[in-house]
Amino acid sequence: MWWNFFVSISLLLKIEGEKRWKLSIKFRRKGEAVTVCLSKESMPEAILPKQGLEGIDLKGYTVIYAKFGRFGETEAKELHNKIPHAIIIYEFQWRNGFGEGVILPENFNPGRVRFYKSAEQEEADAEKKREEEVEVLRERVMATIPGVSIRAYFDDDSVVLVTLEQEVFSDWSVRAKSLQEAQEGVDRMRPIWEEWNTRGLEAFLRHSGKGNPGNGNIELIPSPLGSKRVGVCYDFGKQMYAVFEQQEDGSWKETGTVRGAPKYR
Known about the structure:
The chain has helices at 2-19, 72-82, 119-144, 179-208, and strands spanning 22-29, 32-39, 55-57, 63-68, 87-94, 97-103, 114-116, 148-154, 158-164, 168-169, 174-176, 218-221, 229-235, 240-246, 252-259. The longest helix is centred in the last third of the chain and has 30 residues, at 179-208. The two termini are 56 Å apart. 32% of the residues lie in helices and 33% in strands.
């Protein structure tokens, strides 16, 4: 039992380790470009990528790709003996693990081997570029609009989320991909932010009996932008909220306190 556990853990660690050292190999199979990933340790020195690249382009060679069972390495060598002019790329599995490798022809000429950035490297480069763009935008916004809090946000686009540096916070940030968008958004939202900061801070001081907690320490939930009933948290440990409800004339009135954050209404 313990031996099986040890083997399982060892294999798991091996798998995780190899994921971090996989190289991409491109070759042609039945006229189509195919990409497989093998561990760096399974590559012959002659085709190891240079200059930190993680992709190997073998489309200029005859390549045989095969999968085997328990005696995969032996079968791969037998296949190589039958087709000595081809590069053999193989993977195999047995009861307690797996293996892989590449067999090159004798007198192999690496002149047609090309190296490239793997998909993971391309993705990492794109992510780095996005981070740099956001940092430039963040610095421009900070230098232009005083008194704001800015954080990066990554989804399909690189943007910054902007709010005022004030005690009350909620889900109401300005999402901006440019300095102009940030300026216009802050101008539009500033009256709402300041209104609720005054209202929320007053409710916090009155219900909690404490002093000013500082910027970003009073939660307003849900956002008044999408709900007619919101709560100002004045005791985080006990999850106590002062409740405000929007009236028919658009004004807000405090209507009591509750335990637990109010729901959208």
